[in-house]
Amino acid sequence: MKTSTLHGLAIAGGTTLALLAAIVIGAKLAARSLGIEDPAFRHENELAMWRDEPRIGYANAKHFSGFSYGNIPVETNERGFRGTRPTPVEKPTGVRRIVGLGDSILWGTGVVEADSILGLLEAKLDADAPHEVWNGGVIGYSTLQEMRFLEWHVLPLKPDVVLVNYCMNDTLPNEDPFDNARPIALEYLNGLSAGGFEASARERQHIAELAGIIANADHVWNTLRGLEQRKPGLTRTTRKVMVELPMARMADVARSAGVRLVYLFIPPKFGREKYAQHVADLTPILEARGAEWVDLQGALAVGENEVAEDEKWGEQRRSRAEWLQGVWPPELVQLLWVRRLAAVHDEYLFFDYLHPTKRGNEIIADEVYRYLAATDPRSRG
Fold it and tell me: pTM to 2 decimals?
Protein backbone atom coordinates (compact mmCIF):
# COMPACT_ATOMS: atom_id res chain seq x y z
CA MET A 1 0.00 0.00 0.00
CA LYS A 2 1.31 3.41 -0.93
CA THR A 3 2.52 5.77 1.74
CA SER A 4 0.08 8.43 0.53
CA THR A 5 -2.84 6.02 0.92
CA LEU A 6 -1.81 5.10 4.45
CA HIS A 7 -1.40 8.75 5.24
CA GLY A 8 -4.88 9.47 3.90
CA LEU A 9 -6.44 6.67 5.91
CA ALA A 10 -4.67 7.88 9.03
CA ILE A 11 -6.01 11.39 8.48
CA ALA A 12 -9.52 10.04 7.85
CA GLY A 13 -9.35 7.85 10.93
CA GLY A 14 -8.08 10.71 13.04
CA THR A 15 -10.81 12.98 11.71
CA THR A 16 -13.48 10.38 12.49
CA LEU A 17 -12.19 9.93 16.03
CA ALA A 18 -12.05 13.68 16.51
CA LEU A 19 -15.61 13.99 15.22
CA LEU A 20 -16.83 11.26 17.55
CA ALA A 21 -15.03 12.89 20.45
CA ALA A 22 -16.65 16.21 19.58
CA ILE A 23 -20.08 14.51 19.44
CA VAL A 24 -19.54 12.93 22.85
CA ILE A 25 -18.33 16.19 24.41
CA GLY A 26 -21.15 18.13 22.77
CA ALA A 27 -23.71 15.60 23.96
CA LYS A 28 -22.38 15.80 27.52
CA LEU A 29 -22.58 19.59 27.47
CA ALA A 30 -26.06 19.57 25.93
CA ALA A 31 -27.33 16.99 28.42
CA ARG A 32 -25.91 19.05 31.25
CA SER A 33 -27.54 22.22 29.91
CA LEU A 34 -30.90 20.43 29.73
CA GLY A 35 -30.64 19.50 33.40
CA ILE A 36 -31.32 15.81 32.92
CA GLU A 37 -31.91 14.44 36.40
CA ASP A 38 -33.61 11.18 35.49
CA PRO A 39 -31.39 9.34 32.98
CA ALA A 40 -33.78 6.35 32.96
CA PHE A 41 -36.65 8.56 31.67
CA ARG A 42 -39.17 6.96 34.01
CA HIS A 43 -42.91 7.45 34.11
CA GLU A 44 -44.16 9.21 37.23
CA ASN A 45 -45.74 6.03 38.57
CA GLU A 46 -42.30 4.43 38.63
CA LEU A 47 -41.21 6.92 41.29
CA ALA A 48 -41.78 6.44 45.02
CA MET A 49 -44.34 9.24 45.04
CA TRP A 50 -47.31 7.69 46.88
CA ARG A 51 -48.37 7.31 50.49
CA ASP A 52 -50.63 4.78 52.15
CA GLU A 53 -54.25 5.95 52.33
CA PRO A 54 -56.37 2.94 53.38
CA ARG A 55 -59.72 4.70 52.85
CA ILE A 56 -58.87 5.47 49.20
CA GLY A 57 -56.06 3.09 48.37
CA TYR A 58 -53.19 5.52 48.07
CA ALA A 59 -52.51 9.23 47.62
CA ASN A 60 -49.62 11.39 46.51
CA ALA A 61 -46.81 11.57 49.04
CA LYS A 62 -46.48 14.89 50.81
CA HIS A 63 -43.48 17.12 50.06
CA PHE A 64 -42.26 14.76 47.34
CA SER A 65 -39.54 15.88 44.94
CA GLY A 66 -38.17 13.98 41.97
CA PHE A 67 -37.92 13.89 38.18
CA SER A 68 -39.49 11.91 35.37
CA TYR A 69 -38.98 11.73 31.59
CA GLY A 70 -35.45 13.05 31.93
CA ASN A 71 -36.02 16.53 33.31
CA ILE A 72 -39.70 16.92 34.26
CA PRO A 73 -39.99 18.02 37.92
CA VAL A 74 -42.40 15.95 40.01
CA GLU A 75 -43.17 17.87 43.19
CA THR A 76 -45.96 17.88 45.75
CA ASN A 77 -46.86 20.16 48.64
CA GLU A 78 -48.03 19.53 52.20
CA ARG A 79 -51.29 17.97 50.98
CA GLY A 80 -49.79 15.92 48.18
CA PHE A 81 -51.14 18.35 45.57
CA ARG A 82 -48.89 18.98 42.61
CA GLY A 83 -46.39 21.81 43.07
CA THR A 84 -44.75 23.34 46.11
CA ARG A 85 -47.19 26.18 46.77
CA PRO A 86 -48.98 25.69 50.13
CA THR A 87 -52.74 25.09 50.11
CA PRO A 88 -54.23 26.60 53.29
CA VAL A 89 -57.83 25.89 54.21
CA GLU A 90 -58.71 29.55 54.61
CA LYS A 91 -59.60 31.14 51.29
CA PRO A 92 -58.44 34.73 50.69
CA THR A 93 -61.19 37.31 50.23
CA GLY A 94 -62.13 37.87 46.61
CA VAL A 95 -60.24 34.84 45.33
CA ARG A 96 -62.03 32.13 43.38
CA ARG A 97 -60.82 28.67 44.37
CA ILE A 98 -60.72 25.82 41.84
CA VAL A 99 -59.54 22.31 42.69
CA GLY A 100 -58.86 19.66 40.09
CA LEU A 101 -59.02 15.97 40.90
CA GLY A 102 -58.66 12.98 38.66
CA ASP A 103 -55.97 10.75 37.27
CA SER A 104 -52.71 11.19 35.35
CA ILE A 105 -54.40 13.24 32.62
CA LEU A 106 -55.32 16.04 35.00
CA TRP A 107 -52.10 15.60 36.98
CA GLY A 108 -50.25 16.35 33.74
CA THR A 109 -48.10 13.34 32.97
CA GLY A 110 -45.11 14.17 30.79
CA VAL A 111 -45.27 17.95 31.27
CA VAL A 112 -44.06 20.45 33.85
CA GLU A 113 -46.65 21.79 36.26
CA ALA A 114 -47.07 25.07 34.38
CA ASP A 115 -47.90 23.15 31.17
CA SER A 116 -50.52 20.91 32.78
CA ILE A 117 -54.20 21.61 32.11
CA LEU A 118 -54.61 23.25 35.50
CA GLY A 119 -51.37 25.20 35.31
CA LEU A 120 -52.33 26.68 31.95
CA LEU A 121 -55.89 27.34 33.13
CA GLU A 122 -54.71 29.29 36.17
CA ALA A 123 -52.54 31.53 34.01
CA LYS A 124 -55.57 32.36 31.84
CA LEU A 125 -57.92 32.95 34.77
CA ASP A 126 -55.48 35.15 36.67
CA ALA A 127 -55.53 37.57 33.76
CA ASP A 128 -59.18 38.30 34.62
CA ALA A 129 -59.33 38.11 38.41
CA PRO A 130 -57.47 36.43 41.28
CA HIS A 131 -57.82 32.65 41.28
CA GLU A 132 -56.38 29.68 43.12
CA VAL A 133 -56.13 26.56 41.02
CA TRP A 134 -54.90 23.49 42.88
CA ASN A 135 -53.95 20.20 41.26
CA GLY A 136 -55.16 17.26 43.33
CA GLY A 137 -54.76 14.70 40.53
CA VAL A 138 -53.44 11.26 41.50
CA ILE A 139 -52.07 8.94 38.84
CA GLY A 140 -54.18 5.82 38.38
CA TYR A 141 -57.27 6.96 40.30
CA SER A 142 -60.66 5.43 39.54
CA THR A 143 -64.04 7.16 39.82
CA LEU A 144 -64.60 5.44 43.17
CA GLN A 145 -61.32 6.81 44.49
CA GLU A 146 -62.11 10.26 43.11
CA MET A 147 -65.47 10.18 44.93
CA ARG A 148 -63.77 9.48 48.25
CA PHE A 149 -60.98 11.97 47.59
CA LEU A 150 -63.60 14.64 46.86
CA GLU A 151 -65.45 14.03 50.12
CA TRP A 152 -62.44 13.69 52.41
CA HIS A 153 -59.78 15.95 50.89
CA VAL A 154 -61.37 18.47 48.53
CA LEU A 155 -64.73 19.65 49.89
CA PRO A 156 -63.20 20.62 53.28
CA LEU A 157 -61.20 23.24 51.35
CA LYS A 158 -64.48 24.95 50.32
CA PRO A 159 -63.69 25.31 46.61
CA ASP A 160 -65.94 27.27 44.28
CA VAL A 161 -65.40 24.83 41.42
CA VAL A 162 -64.16 21.24 41.26
CA LEU A 163 -62.88 19.95 37.92
CA VAL A 164 -62.77 16.18 37.31
CA ASN A 165 -61.55 14.37 34.20
CA TYR A 166 -63.08 11.14 32.96
CA CYS A 167 -60.98 8.39 31.41
CA MET A 168 -62.20 5.01 30.15
CA ASN A 169 -59.84 3.19 32.52
CA ASP A 170 -61.44 4.90 35.56
CA THR A 171 -63.62 1.84 36.16
CA LEU A 172 -61.41 -0.01 38.66
CA PRO A 173 -58.73 1.11 41.10
CA ASN A 174 -55.25 0.20 39.90
CA GLU A 175 -53.13 -2.13 41.99
CA ASP A 176 -51.14 -0.05 44.46
CA PRO A 177 -47.95 -0.68 46.46
CA PHE A 178 -49.97 -0.85 49.69
CA ASP A 179 -52.39 -3.58 48.50
CA ASN A 180 -55.42 -1.43 49.33
CA ALA A 181 -57.09 -1.36 45.90
CA ARG A 182 -58.90 -4.67 46.08
CA PRO A 183 -60.10 -4.39 49.71
CA ILE A 184 -61.68 -0.96 49.15
CA ALA A 185 -63.41 -2.15 45.97
CA LEU A 186 -64.76 -5.20 47.82
CA GLU A 187 -65.85 -3.05 50.76
CA TYR A 188 -67.71 -0.78 48.36
CA LEU A 189 -69.44 -3.66 46.53
CA ASN A 190 -70.44 -5.33 49.79
CA GLY A 191 -71.81 -2.00 50.96
CA LEU A 192 -74.01 -1.79 47.87
CA SER A 193 -75.49 -5.18 48.61
CA ALA A 194 -76.15 -4.31 52.25
CA GLY A 195 -77.30 -0.74 51.69
CA GLY A 196 -80.50 -1.27 49.78
CA PHE A 197 -79.05 -0.59 46.33
CA GLU A 198 -81.86 -1.00 43.82
CA ALA A 199 -80.73 -3.58 41.31
CA SER A 200 -82.25 -6.37 39.28
CA ALA A 201 -81.54 -9.99 40.09
CA ARG A 202 -79.20 -10.13 37.09
CA GLU A 203 -77.31 -7.04 38.28
CA ARG A 204 -76.91 -8.51 41.75
CA GLN A 205 -75.53 -11.65 40.17
CA HIS A 206 -73.06 -9.53 38.18
CA ILE A 207 -72.01 -7.63 41.31
CA ALA A 208 -71.32 -10.90 43.10
CA GLU A 209 -69.33 -12.14 40.08
CA LEU A 210 -67.37 -8.88 39.96
CA ALA A 211 -66.57 -9.18 43.67
CA GLY A 212 -65.32 -12.71 43.07
CA ILE A 213 -63.05 -11.54 40.28
CA ILE A 214 -61.64 -8.72 42.38
CA ALA A 215 -61.04 -11.07 45.30
CA ASN A 216 -59.46 -13.94 43.38
CA ALA A 217 -58.22 -13.05 39.90
CA ASP A 218 -54.49 -12.68 39.39
CA HIS A 219 -55.12 -9.76 37.02
CA VAL A 220 -58.49 -8.08 37.51
CA TRP A 221 -58.31 -5.85 34.44
CA ASN A 222 -57.23 -8.64 32.12
CA THR A 223 -59.93 -10.95 33.45
CA LEU A 224 -62.68 -8.39 32.91
CA ARG A 225 -61.45 -7.49 29.44
CA GLY A 226 -61.51 -11.17 28.54
CA LEU A 227 -65.17 -11.34 29.57
CA GLU A 228 -66.32 -8.25 27.64
CA GLN A 229 -67.46 -10.14 24.55
CA ARG A 230 -68.83 -13.21 26.34
CA LYS A 231 -70.57 -11.35 29.17
CA PRO A 232 -71.51 -7.83 28.02
CA GLY A 233 -74.03 -7.60 30.84
CA LEU A 234 -71.24 -7.96 33.40
CA THR A 235 -69.31 -5.16 31.67
CA ARG A 236 -72.38 -2.92 31.74
CA THR A 237 -73.08 -3.58 35.42
CA THR A 238 -69.42 -3.02 36.30
CA ARG A 239 -69.48 0.41 34.66
CA LYS A 240 -72.78 1.21 36.38
CA VAL A 241 -71.63 0.43 39.91
CA MET A 242 -67.98 1.50 39.58
CA VAL A 243 -68.43 4.69 37.52
CA GLU A 244 -72.02 5.87 37.27
CA LEU A 245 -72.98 5.49 40.93
CA PRO A 246 -69.80 7.14 42.30
CA MET A 247 -70.16 9.93 39.72
CA ALA A 248 -73.76 10.52 40.79
CA ARG A 249 -72.65 10.58 44.44
CA MET A 250 -69.98 13.15 43.60
CA ALA A 251 -72.55 15.37 41.91
CA ASP A 252 -74.92 15.08 44.87
CA VAL A 253 -72.37 15.89 47.59
CA ALA A 254 -70.91 18.76 45.57
CA ARG A 255 -74.36 20.28 45.05
CA SER A 256 -75.14 19.90 48.76
CA ALA A 257 -71.89 21.73 49.57
CA GLY A 258 -72.70 24.55 47.14
CA VAL A 259 -69.78 23.58 44.88
CA ARG A 260 -69.89 23.50 41.08
CA LEU A 261 -68.80 20.07 39.85
CA VAL A 262 -67.55 20.24 36.26
CA TYR A 263 -66.53 17.06 34.45
CA LEU A 264 -63.97 17.27 31.66
CA PHE A 265 -64.51 14.65 28.97
CA ILE A 266 -61.03 14.34 27.48
CA PRO A 267 -60.96 11.58 24.84
CA PRO A 268 -58.05 9.19 24.26
CA LYS A 269 -56.14 9.19 21.00
CA PHE A 270 -57.74 5.89 19.98
CA GLY A 271 -61.08 4.25 20.83
CA ARG A 272 -63.05 7.43 20.19
CA GLU A 273 -66.35 5.70 19.36
CA LYS A 274 -66.36 3.80 22.64
CA TYR A 275 -65.47 6.93 24.58
CA ALA A 276 -68.27 8.87 22.85
CA GLN A 277 -70.74 6.20 23.98
CA HIS A 278 -69.48 6.52 27.55
CA VAL A 279 -70.00 10.29 27.42
CA ALA A 280 -73.51 9.84 26.02
CA ASP A 281 -74.31 7.52 28.96
CA LEU A 282 -72.77 9.75 31.64
CA THR A 283 -73.95 13.25 30.76
CA PRO A 284 -77.63 12.57 31.59
CA ILE A 285 -76.53 11.42 35.06
CA LEU A 286 -74.67 14.68 35.61
CA GLU A 287 -77.46 16.81 34.17
CA ALA A 288 -80.08 15.19 36.40
CA ARG A 289 -78.04 16.20 39.46
CA GLY A 290 -77.15 19.73 38.46
CA ALA A 291 -73.53 19.00 37.60
CA GLU A 292 -71.78 20.37 34.52
CA TRP A 293 -69.35 19.17 31.89
CA VAL A 294 -67.08 20.31 29.09
CA ASP A 295 -66.87 17.90 26.16
CA LEU A 296 -63.40 18.06 24.58
CA GLN A 297 -63.97 15.37 21.94
CA GLY A 298 -64.32 17.81 19.06
CA ALA A 299 -61.49 20.07 20.19
CA LEU A 300 -58.95 17.23 20.26
CA ALA A 301 -59.33 15.89 16.73
CA VAL A 302 -56.27 13.78 15.91
CA GLY A 303 -54.81 14.15 12.42
CA GLU A 304 -53.72 11.29 10.19
CA ASN A 305 -50.06 12.31 10.48
CA GLU A 306 -50.15 11.96 14.25
CA VAL A 307 -51.71 8.50 14.08
CA ALA A 308 -49.18 7.34 11.49
CA GLU A 309 -46.27 8.80 13.47
CA ASP A 310 -47.53 7.16 16.65
CA GLU A 311 -47.63 3.74 15.02
CA LYS A 312 -44.19 4.20 13.49
CA TRP A 313 -42.65 5.50 16.70
CA GLY A 314 -44.33 2.84 18.82
CA GLU A 315 -42.85 0.04 16.71
CA GLN A 316 -39.36 1.48 16.65
CA ARG A 317 -39.09 3.06 20.09
CA ARG A 318 -37.96 0.08 22.14
CA SER A 319 -35.55 -1.42 19.60
CA ARG A 320 -34.11 2.00 18.81
CA ALA A 321 -33.60 2.82 22.46
CA GLU A 322 -31.91 -0.50 23.17
CA TRP A 323 -29.63 -0.11 20.15
CA LEU A 324 -28.69 3.45 21.05
CA GLN A 325 -27.93 2.53 24.65
CA GLY A 326 -25.66 -0.25 23.48
CA VAL A 327 -23.71 1.89 21.00
CA TRP A 328 -23.76 5.58 21.90
CA PRO A 329 -22.72 7.44 25.04
CA PRO A 330 -25.61 7.77 27.52
CA GLU A 331 -25.57 11.57 27.28
CA LEU A 332 -26.25 11.39 23.54
CA VAL A 333 -29.12 8.95 24.09
CA GLN A 334 -30.60 11.29 26.70
CA LEU A 335 -30.27 14.26 24.36
CA LEU A 336 -32.06 12.41 21.56
CA TRP A 337 -34.87 11.39 23.90
CA VAL A 338 -35.39 14.95 25.14
CA ARG A 339 -35.44 16.29 21.60
CA ARG A 340 -37.92 13.63 20.55
CA LEU A 341 -40.26 14.36 23.46
CA ALA A 342 -40.04 18.11 22.83
CA ALA A 343 -41.02 17.58 19.18
CA VAL A 344 -44.01 15.46 20.22
CA HIS A 345 -45.24 18.15 22.64
CA ASP A 346 -44.89 20.88 20.00
CA GLU A 347 -46.36 19.03 17.02
CA TYR A 348 -49.03 16.66 18.31
CA LEU A 349 -52.03 16.59 20.62
CA PHE A 350 -51.18 13.39 22.48
CA PHE A 351 -48.05 12.35 24.32
CA ASP A 352 -49.08 8.70 24.06
CA TYR A 353 -52.36 6.87 23.47
CA LEU A 354 -54.00 8.60 26.46
CA HIS A 355 -52.22 11.71 27.74
CA PRO A 356 -52.40 15.11 26.01
CA THR A 357 -49.19 16.92 25.12
CA LYS A 358 -48.43 20.48 26.12
CA ARG A 359 -50.19 21.55 22.93
CA GLY A 360 -53.17 19.35 23.77
CA ASN A 361 -53.30 20.75 27.30
CA GLU A 362 -53.32 24.28 25.90
CA ILE A 363 -56.40 23.46 23.82
CA ILE A 364 -58.16 21.88 26.80
CA ALA A 365 -57.28 24.76 29.13
CA ASP A 366 -58.56 27.27 26.58
CA GLU A 367 -61.88 25.43 26.21
CA VAL A 368 -62.32 25.14 29.99
CA TYR A 369 -61.38 28.79 30.46
CA ARG A 370 -64.00 29.90 27.95
CA TYR A 371 -66.63 27.72 29.58
CA LEU A 372 -65.90 28.98 33.10
CA ALA A 373 -65.77 32.59 31.92
CA ALA A 374 -69.14 32.22 30.21
CA THR A 375 -70.78 30.54 33.21
CA ASP A 376 -69.20 32.50 36.06
CA PRO A 377 -72.07 33.64 38.31
CA ARG A 378 -70.14 36.82 39.12
CA SER A 379 -70.30 37.90 35.48
CA ARG A 380 -74.09 37.72 35.35
CA GLY A 381 -75.93 40.96 35.74
Answer: 0.87
